[in-house]
From TrEMBL:
Pfam hit, one: TetR_N
Keyword annotations: DNA-binding
Domain HTH tetR-type: from-to ranges: 22-82
Keyword field contains Transport: no
PROSITE patterns: HTH_TETR_2
InterPro entries: EthR_C, Homeodomain-like_sf, HTH-type_TetR-like_transc_reg, HTH_TetR, Tet_transcr_reg_TetR-rel_C_sf
Protein name: TetR/AcrR family transcriptional regulator
DNA-binding region ranges: 45-64
C-alpha cells in the first residue's frame, strides 16, 4: 500500500476542506456503493470504483487508503440514512397503530440498503470494525423499540412485568431476519400480508390475552 502524502493524510483525517473536495468525496462514495452492490465486496476493485466515479486513482487515494476504508464509509452512510428514515413521528395512541408504524418504517428503511447490510454482515465475521458498525445499526433499532415499549408500559398499553430489554431484542431479530430473507436472499413475500403478520406477532407479544385494553 502506498504511503499517503501529507495533504492526502490531512484530507483523510479531517475531510475535504472545500466544497469541490466534498463533492469529489461524495462522488467516490456513491460510485463505491454502486460497485459494491453490483459486484460484492470481494470482487470489487479500486479500479472499478474510480472508473464508476469517472475519477483518477490519485483522487481516490486523496480521500481513502484502501477498498476497505471506503466500504466502511459507505456502511456509515447507510447507518445514517436508516437512522434518518426511521426518525419520523410515531403515532401517540393505539398500540396497533404504533406496531404497524414501527414495522412499516423498518421495512421502508431496510429495503434500499439491503445489499450493503448483507455485505456488512459478511465482513463482520472477520472485521472487528465492521462488526461494531453492524451491531450499532441493529442496536439503534432495538433501542428505539425498547423506548417505545417503555412508553407504552408507562401509559398502561403493555404489561408492567414484560421483559422490555429481551422482548425488544427478540422482536428486532425477527424483523431483521425476515427482511434479510426477503431482500437479500430473494424469498418472495406479499408485502402487506407479511407486514400484517409481523404486526400480529408483535401485538400478541406486547398485548397478551387478558391484559387491559390500551
Amino acid at each position: 500500500m502506498r504511503e499517503p502524502t501529507a495533504v492526502q493524510q490531512t484530507r483523510r483525517d479531517v475531510g475535504p476542506i472545500t466544497d469541490r473536495g466534498a463533492a469529489r468525496r461524495r462522488q467516490l462514495l456513491d460510485a463505491a456503493r454502486r460497485v459494491f452492490e453490483r459486484q460484492g465486496f470481494t470482487d470489487a476493485r479500486v479500479a472499478d470504483i474510480v472508473k464508476e466515479a469517472h475519477a483518477s486513482h490519485g483522487t481516490f487515494y486523496t480521500y481513502f487508503d484502501t477498498k476497505e476504508a471506503i466500504f466502511v464509509e459507505v456502511a456509515r452512510t447507510v447507518i445514517e440514512d436508516m437512522h434518518e428514515d426511521m426518525a419520523v413521528a410515531v403515532p401517540t395512541s393505539g398500540l396497533d397503530l404504533r406496531v404497524h408504524d414501527a414495522i412499516d418504517r423498518f421495512i421502508h428503511a431496510y429495503r434500499p440498503n439491503a445489499a450493503i447490510i448483507a455485505l456488512m454482515e459478511q465482513l463482520a465475521l472477520d472485521s472487528v470494525e465492521m462488526r461494531a458498525l453492524r451491531l450499532d445499526l441493529r442496536d439503534s433499532f432495538v433501542q428505539r423499540t425498547r423506548r417505545g415499549i417503555e412508553r407504552m408500559q408507562a401509559d398502561g398499553s403493555v404489561p408492567a412485568d414484560l421483559d422490555v430489554e429481551y422482548t425488544a431484542e427478540a422482536l428486532g431479530a425477527m424483523l431483521e431476519y425476515t427482511c434479510h430473507l426477503w431482500f437479500s436472499l430473494g424469498k418472495e413475500f406479499e408485502e402487506r400480508r407479511l407486514a400484517d403478520a409481523l404486526a400480529g406477532i408483535w401485538f400478541a407479544t406486547l398485548h397478551p390475552e387478558g391484559h387491559g385494553a390500551p
